[in-house]
Amino acid sequence: MYQSPRRLCSALLQRDASGLRRLPTPGLRRQSPPPAAAPRPASPRLLVAASAASGAARSCSRAVCSMGNGTSRLYSALAKTLNSSAASQHPEYLVSPDPEHLEPIDPKELLEECRAVLHTRPPRFQRDFVDLRTDCPSSHPPIRVMQWNILAQALGEGKDNFVQCPVEALKWEERKCLILEEILAYQPDILCLQEVDHYFDTFQPLLSRLGYQGTFFPKPWSPCLDVEHNNGPDGCALFFLQNRFKLVNSANIRLTAMTLKTNQVAIAQTLECKESSRQFCIAVTHLKARTGWERFRSAQGCDLLQNLQNITQGAKIPLIVCGDFNAEPTEEVYKHFASSSLNLNSAYKLLSADGQSEPPYTTWKIRTSGECRHTLDYIWYSKHALSVRSALDLLTEEQIGPNRLPSFNYPSDHLSLVCDFSFNEEPDGLL
């Protein structure tokens, strides 16, 4: 039976509505739209229809990953097949189902649904784009790229120990709406995400109905699997609007360090712009975390650069690399990217007064070990082939507040980065 896009959207958003808990915080009300009634639980029939496209993948994921502690070893056996010729046996973890049969969703309707769920929370932070154009307008629309570590749900609730963040602020039923609201607010043409552990039951079903084509590549030994009641492994996800780009080729890369396969991954896709017929490569990655792993990250970065060198045919194809590098600008891995033969520049340096300094932070959190404020997230681009037309400014310390991130009005411990790119009409020299 036909169901309207709005009803499909509602069913997806409300699939956990029966367990939704609201925080009674007088005075905290979202300003737009006006307060709305709590959404009604969706009927089983609607839930089945809404999740049909991802049902098989989710069934597989839950069968392997739903046991909590001790599942990493079990999942690792499956994960190894994803990096071999046997990967075709488990395509649900690598490539999205064909979305052609799915009914589209109006993004405004989805945004209304999110705001209805979030009506008891504070309003979204206001962030402005900074105009960085120094030349004449491009003859084609800019390409908006969004980079974001969205915080894996299992880690946020189970391992990350955000001591100043109330547990109610981390509930997935509302936090997923905050994530979607951020994405819908900036309407990226390309979306690069890390720590995605709700790909098949949230992001792929909804974003495919908004016109995106997505790819997901999980970590072989995701720490999410050691959290009770987890939703499967976390990994990187890459989405692009199908009406703007055509996929030329795609590579899922398991990064190596010192010849050893590691737990970190990347996705690299060559896209062709339908308006200009220009091609470029977009990549997303998430490098090893923690102090003491600097040399390991450096080796991972070198491996990724070598892979991208091959994919871009020696820098003939322009490149954009998004990621949580877990590295400050003082680390070797950052210096490798800055000095690479791929001729890359970091887009967010352009927001500084001299154009040479990274932002003071892209993540700010308080754990049991203390307060952590670091610059770890970057958008790199081919500086001779591409220009940054604008970039989304960061949240101020006042906006973030004394309890830092995540919070009731921001869903992750990392800030989203958003840039508008255009092709240089006459690239000067090598790309």
From TrEMBL:
List the biased-composition ranges (Low complexity).
20-30
Query: What CDD domains does the database record attribute to this sequence?
Result: Deadenylase_nocturnin (cd09096)
Q: Which UniProt keywords apply?
A: Biological rhythms, Cytoplasm, Hydrolase, Magnesium, Metal-binding
Provide the catalytic activity annotation. Answer: NADP(+) + H2O = phosphate + NAD(+); NADPH + H2O = phosphate + NADH
Required cofactor names: Mg(2+)
InterPro entries in alphabetical order: CCR4/nocturin_mRNA_transcr, Deadenylase_nocturnin, Endo/exonu/phosph_ase_sf, Endo/exonuclease/phosphatase
Chain ranges of the Endonuclease/exonuclease/phosphatase domain: 146-414
Give the top-level enzyme category: hydrolase
- EC number(s) for this protein? 3.1.3.108
* Region Disordered, annotated ranges: 20-43
> What GO cellular-component annotations does this UniProt entry give?
cytoplasm
> Which molecular function term from Gene Ontology is one that the record holds?
metal ion binding
Give the GO terms filed under biological process for this record. Answer: circadian rhythm; nucleobase-containing compound metabolic process
Q: Where is the composition biased (Pro residues)?
A: 32-42
Question: Could you tell me the superkingdom of the organism this chain comes from?
Answer: Eukaryota
Q: What this chain does, per the record? A: Phosphatase which catalyzes the conversion of NADP(+) to NAD(+) and of NADPH to NADH. Shows a small preference for NADPH over NADP(+). Represses translation and promotes degradation of target mRNA molecules. Plays an important role in post-transcriptional regulation of metabolic genes under circadian control. Exerts a rhythmic post-transcriptional control of genes necessary for metabolic functions including nutrient absorption, glucose/insulin sensitivity, lipid metabolism, adipogenesis, inflammation and osteogenesis.
Q: Subunit info?
A: Interacts with PPARG.
Q: Write out the similarity annotation.
A: Belongs to the CCR4/nocturin family.
Please give the name of this protein.
Nocturnin
Instruction: Please report the organism this UniProt entry assigns to the protein.
Output: Mustela putorius furo
